[in-house]
Amino acid sequence: MADDKSNAAAYWSANVRLIAGCLIVWALVSYGFAILLRPLLSGIPVGGTDLGFWFAQQGSILTFIGIIFFYAWKMNRLDEKFGLGE
Amino acid sequence: MSQFAINVLFVGASFALYIAIAIWAKAGSTKDFYVAGGGVHPVTNGMAIGADWMSAASFISMAGLIAAGGYANSTFLMGWTGGYVLLATLLAPYLRKFGKFTVPEFIGDRFYSKNARLVAVICLIVASVTYVIGQMAGAGVAFSRFLEVDATMGLIIAAIVVFFYSVLGGMKGITYTQVAQYCVLITAYTIPAVFISLELTGNPLPPLGLFSDHSESGMPLLAKLNEVITELGFNQYTADVDNKLNMVLFTLSLMIGTAGLPHVIIRFFTVPKVADARWSAGWALVFIALLYLTAPAVASMARLNLMTTIYPDGPTAEPIQYEDRPNWIKEWEVTGLIQFEDKNDDGRIQLYNDTESFAPTAQERGWEGNELEVNRDILVLANPEIANLPGWVIGLIAAGGLAAALSTAAGLLLAISSAISHDLIKGSINPRITEKGELLAARISMSVAIIVATYLGANPPGFAAQVVALAFGIAAASLFPALMMGIFSKRVNNKGAITGMLTGLAFTLVYIFIYKGWFFIPGTNNLADIPENYVLGISPLSIGAVGAIINFAVAFIVSNATEAPPKEIQELVESVRYPKGAGTAVDH
């Protein structure tokens, strides 16, 4: 039982760390590149405008898809590793 | 064949398809009615979530708002997709593991309190009804144009169709119908965009066309658009915004609202395993992104096409004569959604930004005010006509717009009715209600919700996508924090969750009502809905994010000042965190 408990705790903290990592990327591309940091990226031209505009209208969405599939893939491996999958 | 006949044919054929599927997969029991037997594949489920999700706001209204606001309205694009990251990582897998039918059920069990469940029901109803108002407004616009009637009549027809459509089906009927609706709406949205992108940039893929060169001028498309509209006194399309605080809060509000809306969360109960809930969120976003990557291209291209229609010889030359206006303007004039007033009596259509800084130029050109008012909600529907595309494309977009509005309205009405019949009546008032009685209560509450939404949809507190954004703010401020804390904290107790939800909801609603009118009744607002009146420039559309922060803070403070949740609740939180032994969605 003690093993079960520490195993479960390790699984949960690994999950929380992974979520934190995903959310940092999530915030960086949307609130960062697309909004707050846009003036800093204004020097990088993309099709008649700048990189910040691209992140706001395309880049962030593509990144979000990447994050979710990465998280799903990584979590399924964690489920197996800790023996907590179905 | 006349355009009217083509529209009726397309809309009619698509509806026949949905009804046929609904009959084929008719809901037999209450469980089927709510969660479709729990056996849906992640890709199928992702597609159904996509249809559920992409409403009149995404399909009909959003591109029009982006076209008008340019970069500033990218918030809709990021907000309505970024929420899926929160859903996939913070909510969906755990709620699937919990395995109940409804969102209030989780809140009631986790916070071991009937009152918490009741408060969740109230939050859910307020958010969902606001959302349905936006849908009705959008569906009304679509019906009025394609059936060639005025906007109010269009709204009433929409209400009747939604009524028959949602009251007859349940979740099981809906899952497969929604797969069909997704296919209809995505085809309808992308086909005109492909034609237009090809025509303007030579690139058949609209998301690439957006950043390509404009074939006619050789300039980048966006640079061309900037040039044309600034000549007419408008802001640059790609201009940065001054109030970044409001832009951040608005995006945040849409994102957490996405993760707090019951009709989307409910979908994650219909997959067999926890792992599938994670994949479902990913697939849903893939299907959603197909539209969301096309929308900004549609927005900028339609804006450019509109300007070249009015100013065929360039913005510095004379605009077209009103007599020579294209047919689509005439047809939209019938609905009252395009209005022309010849202010300087020269017989031409002056479309420009009537501001102080542009006044000298306007005076020089003999213009006495902007003469063409175009409702933003019509842009996507008018798009194929503006680009002179063939009649069948117009019929297709009619069918797609209606599919979008109806699928979401149906999903929301289902969430409302299950909250009332399952959580309110069966959960609190009369636990011994029969299955038949529960279904009847569900249908009655759907009908009431439709009537309220139609009444308020006649004078909506904004364009369809803006009304929907308000609903997201409400969900963000009330439901999302309670759900997230219920999973990630063992310390938050019943008192904390209840006070948190109530303060978040009350704060957000009061702020919205002050500017938008009490209970959205026109004319009852205390302050005019203009940026000068906003606190720190935070618009009512963005306030949900602040409400959510208040909700979290209050819940933590109150919980820490009162006793910890009982041991069995802490064990429940533990069990929700691990996928092992999820089983299927169960009744009590």
From TrEMBL, chain A:
Keyword check for Cell inner membrane? no
A Pfam short name: DUF4212
Could you tell me which InterPro entries the record lists for this protein?
A: Na_symporter_ssu (IPR019886)
Q: Where are the transmembrane segments?
A: 18-41, 53-73
Q: Where is the Sodium symporter small subunit domain?
A: 9-84
Highest taxon of source: Bacteria
Q: Keywords on this record? A: Membrane, Transmembrane, Transmembrane helix
NCBIfam families membership: Na_symport_sm
- The protein here is known as Putative solute:sodium symporter small subunit
TrEMBL record, chain B:
Gene3D superfamilies per the record?
Sodium/glucose cotransporter (1.20.1730.10)
Q: Name one Pfam family in it.
A: SSF
GO molecular function list? symporter activity
Q: Where in the cell is it found?
A: Membrane
GO cellular component terms attached to this protein's record: plasma membrane
BP GO terms, sorted:
carboxylic acid transport; sodium ion transport
Q: What topology does it adopt in the membrane?
A: Multi-pass membrane protein
Q: Kindly state which keywords UniProt assigns to this record, in alphabetical order.
A: Cell membrane, Ion transport, Membrane, Sodium, Sodium transport, Symport, Transmembrane, Transmembrane helix, Transport
Q: Can you tell me which family this protein belongs to?
A: Belongs to the sodium:solute symporter (SSF) (TC 2.A.21) family.
Query: What is the protein named?
Result: Cation/acetate symporter
Source organism per UniProt: Modicisalibacter ilicicola DSM 19980
